[in-house]
Amino acid sequence: MGAVRPRLRHLPRRPPSGVPPPWSPSRRRAWPATSPDHRELLDSGLCDAVVVSSPNMTHSEILMDIIGYAKPHHVLVEKPLCTTVQDCEKVIEAAKQRPDILVQVGLEYRYMPPVAKLIDTVKSGTLGQVRMVAIREHRFPFLVKVNNWNRFNCNSGGTLVEKCCHFFDLIRLFADANPVRVMASGAIDVNHKDEVYHGKVPDIIDNAYVIIEFDNGCRGMLDLCMFAEGSRNEQEISVVGDTGKVQTDAFTILIFEN
């Protein structure tokens, strides 16, 4: 959201209004029109659409209030939608009852130039039927957040939700199918083990393997390591079909045809 905020200032018509984060530097840089909470913002009548970019564990309550508000407000929520399956189902069901509003989740990895090209290649049929999707992310640990709320599963939903929802979205997009079976293994091996917050040690995993099987026979795999700072390629994606393969890192895309 930090990269988006300056661009919002260039939108036409009235300046955006919002709820300032509970952090004094953010308040000093906030927009002229702010509200102390999302309910007052909705009551103000100042906006037609809402961007929810608050900590993950607050999404469910905020979304339910927006969706249930009498005046329709379109809403874009930063990933993840919610931190639990139950809350996601509740929000989805509520949104279905409001055909007058659009509820979207921001999964911006789809729009990174190399990934966008990869998506176009897969959709073109060049690879034939997609059989395998593999994504590797070997990167640095989670960055510092306000009060480091992202160090605990109860706040973020866990590493595979907070960070890897981008990759599960892409794997499902490439497979063009729904998952039927998931196998995974992860651990807390290196990161944040010496940190303590309110007497508690962080419980988020820092590495994992995940395999997903889809109802059309396609399989996807995620290889995650959060203590591999300095890797040549932080992210690598490959998609293999029965007539070709495409792969990309952060800078290049390669296409191989049989």
From TrEMBL:
GO molecular function: nucleotide binding
Domain Gfo/Idh/MocA-like oxidoreductase N-terminal intervals: 36-106
SUPFAM superfamilies: Glyceraldehyde-3-phosphate dehydrogenase-like, C-terminal domain (SSF55347), NAD(P)-binding Rossmann-fold domains (SSF51735)
Pfam families xref list: GFO_IDH_MocA, GFO_IDH_MocA_C
Ranges annotated as biased composition (Pro residues): 14-24
InterPro entries named in the record: Gfo-Idh-MocA_inositol_DH, Gfo/Idh/MocA-like_OxRdtase_C, Gfo/Idh/MocA-like_OxRdtase_N, NAD(P)-bd_dom_sf
Region (Disordered): 1-35
Domain Gfo/Idh/MocA-like oxidoreductase C-terminal per the UniProt entry, residue ranges: 121-247
UniProt biased composition (Basic residues): 1-13
PANTHER family, per the entry: OS08G0148267 PROTEIN (PTHR43593:SF2), PTHR43593
Name the record gives this protein: Gfo/Idh/MocA-like oxidoreductase N-terminal domain-containing protein
Organism, as annotated: Hordeum vulgare subsp. vulgare (Domesticated barley)
